[in-house]
Amino acid sequence: MIKLAVIGTNWITDQFIEAALISGHYQLSAVCSRSMESAKQFAEKYAKLTPQPILFDDLQALAESDQIDVVYIASPNSLHATQAMQMMRGGKHVICEKPLAANETLAKQMFAVADENGVLLYEAFMSMHTPNFKILKAQLDEIGPISKAFISYCQYSSRYPKYLAGENPNTFNPAFANGSIMDIGFYCLSSAIELFGEPNNVQAQAQLLASGVDGSGSVILSYQGFEVVLQHSKTSDSALPSEIQGENGILQIEMISIGQKVTKKLRGQGWEDLTVEQSHNPMLYEALDFAEQLANNRVNPSATERSLLVAKIQTEIRRQTGVVFPQD
User: Fold this and answer.
1) What is the distance between the alpha carbons of residues 11 and 127, in angstroms, rounded to a whole number?
2) Does one domain contain both 208 and 112?
3) pTM of the model
4) 281 pLDDT higher than 90
5) What is the Cα–Cα distance from 122 to 59, expressed in whole angstroms?
6) 233 and 216 in contact (C-beta within 8 Å)?
7) Claim to verify: residue 112 and residue 220 sit in the same structural domain
8) Any idea what the CATH number is for the domain that residue 248 is in?
9) CB within 8 A of 271, min separation 6: which ones?
10) Does residue 327 form part of some domain?
11) Quick check: bond before 99 cis, omega within 30?
12) Residue 132 phi, psi dihedral angles, 5° rounding
C-alpha cells in the first residue's frame, strides 16, 4: 500500500484523495497544511475511510518523515517547484498538480532533483489518462492525415466576480504564477502535445487583466501540414467541443479536461458515438497510472518529455503575451 501525504487542503486535494482511495493502491498517511488546525479539520473528513493520518504544519518535518512514500502537491502554482524539490530531497516521490512549475527553468530543475535523489516526479495531468481521451488518440489514424484541430476549454471562473469587485484572488494574481494559460489553458496545450507532439512554431495572443495575468487567449501551434488552434478563457464560458479534422473524417471530444464524450464522423457517413463509461472521478486514472509506474520504479519517459515541453511552450506563450511572474 502506498503511503500518501498531501500538501494543500482544497477541493482538488479532496478529489485526488478520493481517486487514490478508490484505486485501492493508496492509504492517506499524512496531511500537511499551514496550520495544525486546518490539517486536522481536513483529515477528519476521512476518519471513517482511512487510519488517522499524521498531521504536519512544517514542510521539512514532512520531507524527513519515514512514514511517507509519496507526496501529492496541490498548493498554489508558485510553490510547486520549491515544495516538490524539498520533498524529493527528503527521499519522497512526488505527484505534483499541473502546471509542474511557473516556468521551464524550474521544471528542468525539478526533474534534475528527482534524478539526483532517485525518486519519481509525476505531473498530475488527468486528461490523457481517461479512457475517452485514449480512444480519441487511438482514432487519429482513422480520420486520415490531420488537416486542422481546434482544442477549446473556456470556463467562467468562480473567482472572477471577486476580482471584478476589487479583490485579489490567487487565480488572477501573477505572484501565484496563475492566469488562464497556466490553469485552464494547460489542458488545451498539454492535450495538443500529447496528441501531436512538439510543434514547429508557436504564436500566442491574450487578453491581459490589470493584475498582469491573462484572462483569456488563443494559441496557434504549427505542425507539418496542419495547425492546432487552442482557445482558453477564465472570464467566459463556451459549450463548443474540441475537434480534430482529417482528410477522411472528424473527431470531436466534449470537455477535453475529462473526456466527457467522443464522437467520430467519417466522410459520407453519420456520426458514431465512441464514448465509454468512465469513473465519476476522472483523477482515478492518473492515480492508477502513477501506482503502476511506482511499482516499476520508473516514470514513463514520454510523460517527462511532455511535461518539460509543455513548460517550455507555456513560458514562450507568456513571453509573447507579456505575462511575467516573480519566478522568472
Assistant:
1) 18
2) no
3) 0.96
4) yes
5) 19
6) yes
7) no
8) 3.30.360.10
9) 263, 264, 265
10) no
11) yes
12) -75, -30
